[in-house]
Amino acid sequence: MKDSGNCITEEAGDNGGKGVSSLAAQEQLVGPAFFSARSLKEMSSMLQARRRELRTEHAELEEQRQSWRADMRQARRGTTGNTPNVSPESLGEVRSGLDAKSASLNRAIGEYRALEQFW
Asked: What are the extents of the domains in the chain?
């Protein structure tokens, strides 16, 4: 499988096939606090905080991906660098974990976009 390098650009508008309504998915994202917010300023503040969280998660994921890529290149060359005894199997497991985090982050971004449109 070839790595596209743009894991966050995928659209994530679905609820994972759980049959949850859009409103229910939005409530799960930020909880009742968002919908019982007393003012527009409060809702705006909550959305901004969530956006910062998502950006931080995205930056962390990209750092982990870059590290994985470097480890993979070293494993292909037969050098270990800073990572002792890296096997292709363990790198495959790391990649699977990164892909799962990416999918989760994409869903969260989709939910955030839905909240922005709702608001």
From this structure: 20-118
